Structures are given as C-alpha cells and as structure tokens.
Amino acid sequence: MNTQKITLAVADDHALFRKGLVEILSGFSEMEVLFDAANGQELVDKIATAEQKPDICLLDIKMPVMDGFATAKYIRNNWPRIRTIAVSMYDDEMSIIKMMRNGSNGYVLKDVQPEDLRKAIVALYDKGFYHSELLTSDIVKKVSAHRAEEPTHGISDKELEFLRYCCTELTYKEIGEKMGNSPRTIDGYRDSLFSKLEVTSRTGLAVYAIKHGIVKL
Q: Do 125 and 27 belong together in one domain?
C-alpha cells in the first residue's frame, strides 16, 4: 500500500475560512498541507520558490490580486503536473465552466462536508478529475473512460459549433446571434446534444467538450 501523503496548498482570501480549511485537511492522515496563501499571486510565488511542489491546490474563486480563474490557468501553464480544485461558494454554471476552461480539475462548494472534501481530493489525486453532482450525471466518468477517437460521432457541424460556444461566457441568446440562428434553433441544438450526450445541463456539455479536446484549454 502506498503511504505517500497527498501534498496540498490552499489559497483563500478569508483568513478564518483558510485557517479552518488547513486545520481540517491536516487532520486527514493521507494528506499534508505544505502552505497556504491569501490570494493567487501569493500562492504561485510560494509554489515557484518551494522545494516541494504540492500535488493539488485548493482555490477560492473570488480573491484579490489574482483570482481563482487566473490562478488555475497560471498553474496549468507553468506546473501542468499540479492539479487544482475550486472550493467556492458559487454554484453557477458560468463559474464552473470558466474554472474548467482555465484548467481546474474539480469543483466543490464551501459548504461541503469534510469527509466529502476528503473523498474529492483523493479522487482527484487518483483519477486526475473530480466528478461531483455539480458536473451533472455521470458524464465525466463516461468521457474519462472513453478514448478520444471520434468524439463528435453523431454530432452535426452546427451542433459542434454550438457545443464550442457552450464553453464560453456567452448566453444562449448571444450564441444564437453569433451563429445567426433563432432562439428556437439554439434550443434545438441544446436539447439534441442533451439527448445524444446524456447530460442535463450546459455544464455537462462543457465537460464533454473539454474532456474530448473539442475546445482547447
């Protein structure tokens, strides 16, 4: 049995929450918190000079100086072996999709139970991605196990274009304007993809597109 601990780093601008989170994480026998930071810039500065890099960084989204979106992207570009997971109070689809686009490997809410957070971190460490109810159905498990060959099988060119736009911050109305289609046609693309990919939300569509490389991170 591998007894090597999962090494962690935490970035959150709320000191009380950050210190409490560090205390909780330090209480898990399989984990070790290397350091914490009050914002993304402080975190990446510490990673840059650290002798030992963390396996996983837990990131708040709304932080001063460098927020979670920018931090996830910076870590992905500079230390691709370090995985990141968002720990946020925001559960809206746009925040989840944007974090994923920027390289985050998972997303949990701040009201998560400690044991569920432990399971999320272990799953992320073991599998490279954490799938929660926020990411809808079992799409992540399906696409993780599925080889990248023919990821667009059964999807039309217009649906593929729509799928790419779903990974942006555009609203459905704005996507329709970009594609030159009516709201009714856009609803048709969405419902068709929901059926073909067996998902029930825009986040599920984004997960599929990102995991299959349909959109470039």
A: yes
Q: Give the pair of three-digit tokens for residue 128.
A: 């490279």
Percent of the chain at pLDDT exceeding 70: 87
Same domain, 172 and 81: no
State how many domains the chain has: 2
The separation between the first and the last C-alpha atoms of the chain, rounded to the nearest angstrom, is: 35
Read off the pLDDT band of 103 (50, 70, 90): confident
Render pLDDT for 130-149 as a digit per residue (tens, 0 to 9).
766 555 444 444 444 443 44
Alpha-carbon distances, residue 164 vs 68, 97, 160, 178 (angstroms): 22, 12, 6, 12
Same domain, 88 and 187: no
Half-sphere exposure of 217 (CA within 13 A, CB side): 25
Domain residues for 117?
A: 6-134
The amino acid occupying position 215 is: V
Q: What is the pTM of this model?
A: 0.72
Give start and end residues of each alpha helix (H) in 27-153.
40-49, 68-78, 93-101, 114-127, 139-145
The residues facing 10 across adjacent strands are 36, 58
120-126: average pLDDT: 92
What is the DSSP pairing of strand 107-109 with strand 56-59? Answer: unpaired
The answer to whether the beta carbons of residues 2 and 29 sit under 8 Å apart is no
